[in-house]
Design brief:
- With 210 residues, this protein is of the alpha/beta class.
- It has one domain: P-loop containing nucleotide triphosphate hydrolases (Rossmann fold), CATH 3.40.50.300.
- It has five helices and seven strands.
- It is globular, with a radius of gyration of 16 Å.
- The relative contact order is 0.18.
């Protein structure tokens, strides 16, 4: 299984002025607050506890950067974006996340792609469709990942992926991943390494790879 040779917390930012200098190609992770972003980041790099997991989804209000030295393919930064859509977070606070995240997505030349996480048991909803449309408009490549796939019966996994593909209007099946069982991580690594190996800067025009 592919893992990082080394991974370290780099910095956090609550406003664009705090964004670090873009020295590495970046892959951002986005999704609902209870979708398992931190757990998946930890599983991908093979460093338990690198990204903090919270018992209270929606508590993270910062953008967090992690410097990762891949076992093959060079170095990159993984960027953990604040979660959205969790009912326990007041609506006003959820709206406050949006300008911060949009500032990152629009102005970050180092950004190579977004990994959009969707709970396999819940499927895609309006917020995921809206985010995909926004990313497509900005020309940002996307890989949709279904988290917690181990919670599904094996016979239900591929039909679930096909259903989410239809729900979100994707051109290809999303990846099925499980942080607890380390499933689907190699495929996710291959996507990330392909994106950081692509020519520098984001692709011109409204293109999106989903």
């Amino acid at each position: 299984m592919m893992k990082a040779r080394r991974a370290d917390f780099l910095t956090s930012a609550s406003e664009p002025a705090g964004f670090p200098r873009p020295e590495l190609p970046e892959i951002a992770f986005a999704g609902r607050s209870n979708v398992g972003k931190s757990s998946l980041i930890n599983a991908v790099v093979g460093v338990p506890g690198l990204a903090r997991t919270s018992r209270t989804p929606g508590r993270t209000r910062l953008i967090n950067w992690f410097r990762v030295e891949a076992a093959v393919g060079g170095s990159l930064a993984l960027v953990d974006l604040p979660g959205y859509g969790y009912a326990a977070v007041p609506h006003q606070l959820r709206r406050a996340f949006r300008p911060l995240v949009e500032s990152y997505l629009v102005g970050r030349d180092a950004l190579r792609a977004v990994v959009l996480l969707v709970d396999a048991r819940r499927g895609g909803e309006d917020e995921e469709r809206e985010l995909l449309a926004y990313l497509a408009e900005k020309g940002i490549p996307v890989q949709v990942v279904l988290t917690k796939s181990d919670k599904l019966a094996k016979a239900a996994r591929r039909p679930t992926a096909a259903a989410v593909k239809r729900q979100l209007g994707l051109a290809r099946d999303p990846l099925l991943c499980s942080a607890s069982r380390a499933e689907g991580l190699d495929e996710l690594w291959r996507f990330m390494l392909a994106r950081i190996a692509a020519p520098g800067g984001r692709p011109p025009g409204p293109r999106v790879s989903v």
